[in-house]
User: What shape does this take?
Amino acid sequence: MFSGRFDHATDEKGRVSIPARFRETLQHDGHESLFITNWVFQKERCLALFPPSQWTRLIGKISQRGSLDPSTQTLQMFFIGGAHEVQVDRQGRILIPPKLREYAHLDRDVTFNALIDHFQLWDKALLQRIVEAAEQQMMDADFVGKLNL
Assistant: This one.
């Protein structure tokens, strides 16, 4: 399980260090690579990163859907077609492919954001705006009531 939000910086080659807490989880589960792909959250671009076990599980779910279904084809074209497997190096870094850096508008300042079984990588300033908007939603009693937690 992943949790937390961590600011990091990419280097001139497009490498970024995975947060130590995320690396510990990956190492505990024996993962030395990640699957990274494009994603959209509330009409904003980011990258989604999955440990191999979660990626395999997700691909299995997508494979069960009808391959002739237009929505499934769109998901496969966008999500699966944009995916890359990246190795975690000895320093705990990954190299973000140039097309994915360009897609998510990632420059130097980035933020990792946990989502239980995987995590995202965002432009730091963009995620800050999204988190502030989410905070406003959390202040709405009706919104929180609909969560049924």
